[in-house]
Design goal:
Its EC number is 5.1.3.1. The chain is an alpha/beta fold. Helix content is 33%, strand content 19%. The protein has helices at residues 16-26, 48-57, 75-80, 96-105, 152-165, 181-187, 197-200, 205-213, and strands at 3-6, 31-36, 62-67, 85-89, 109-114, 132-136, 170-174, 192-195. The chain has an 8-stranded parallel sheet with strand order 1-8-7-6-5-4-3-2. α1 packs across α8 (205-213). The longest helix is centred in the C-terminal third of the chain and has 14 residues, at 152-165. It binds D-xylitol-5-phosphate and zinc ion.
Length: 214
């Protein structure tokens, strides 16, 4: 079954504990935690102090998506502050292999992310090392953007690579996921969904969880 990680970027930060309780009750698989530095992406979001609070507030797995320059300087810290999974953009570092090793050495699941303009072949050399690949289906930096259809063919390419090489990584999608786009990403091989604005606009998180997980 497809796993669902709502993006806390669209949650109510004034009532974070209630939000986390409601997510647990709804049966989501974890929470997605978007870190933006104002350099790699043109926006600044949340960091370690909020991660500490989320870690205290839930036992759900926390999937940290680092949209930051020089991720090698920070991955250990995010692991020590409670991340269960950490993904880094291949575009953000010349040393993606080393950063993935750093994450794995902290006993945290390691993911690599590709922007809409980055081809799958940019990450081929490290696909046998990662636990998941995050295919951005919008340009990172903001919630509430429109899904980019052209990204779907990357899901086919990654599914084919998994089959041919007997690899087992999850394929995560992030950006513009809603009741209409979910069908195409899942049918093309996505196994993990991130949803922000579409998820949190619902009053009832159980209903939207069921819609997205199918
Ligand atoms: C965008 C972030 C996403 C964002 C998704 O840069 O990485 O995780 O919260 O939001 P929606 O689902 O609204 O596109
Ligand atoms: Zn994200």
């Amino acid at each position: 079954m497809t796993k669902l990680y709502p993006s806390l970027l669209s949650a109510d930060f004034l009532n974070l504990q209630q939000e986390l309780n409601a997510l647990e009750e709804a049966g989501v698989d974890g929470v997605h935690f978007d870190v933006m530095d104002g350099q790699f992406v043109p926006n600044i979001s949340i960091g370690l102090p909020i991660l500490d609070s989320v870690r205290k507030g839930t036992d759900l797995p926390i999937d940290v998506h680092l949209m930051i320059e020089e991720p090698e300087k920070y991955v250990e810290l995010f692991a020590e502050h409670g991340a269960d999974m950490i993904s880094v953009h291949v575009e953000a570092t010349p040393h993606i292999h080393r950063v993935v090793e750093q994450i794995k050495n902290k006993n945290v699941k390691a993911g690599v992310v590709i922007n809409p303009g980055t081809p799958v072949h940019a990450i081929c050399p490290i696909l046998n090392m990662v636990d998941y690949v995050l295919v951005m289906t919008v340009n990172p930096g903001f919630g509430g953007q429109t899904f980019i259809d052209g990204c779907v063919e990357k899901l086919d390419q990654l599914s084919e690579i998994k089959k041919v090489h007997g690899l087992n990584f999850d394929i995560e999608v992030d950006g513009g996921i809603n009741d209409t786009t979910v069908e195409s990403v899942v049918s093309h091989g996505a196994t993990m969904l991130v949803a922000g604005s579409y998820f949190f606009k619902h009053e009832d998180y159980k209903t939207v969880t069921n819609i997205l997980k199918g």
